[in-house]
Amino acid sequence: MENNAQICQSCGMPISEDKQKGTNEDGSLSNDYCSYCFQKGKFTQNVSLDEQVEIGLSYYPPYKEAKTQEEKNLLKQQSKEYLSNLKRWKS
Fold it and tell me: 87 Cβ partners below 8 Å, 6+ apart?
């Protein structure tokens, strides 16, 4: 990944093209959020951090391939720590 690549400040997805960016209320492109998380100035889903972690893990190959609950728990913990530092989830 290039150093200038953005990441969605809600789900952590890399944003490398304008078509992946969400939109602000005025229709301009969001510099913070992807199109999956943010459209027309609003979040597409009203979810908690824990719910966002679960959504993200459902798309994450290493989580799907984890053989033990211990591995899944570790990946879940790491995901929560990562997401909790993003703009949407910082308290």
Answer: 9, 10, 32
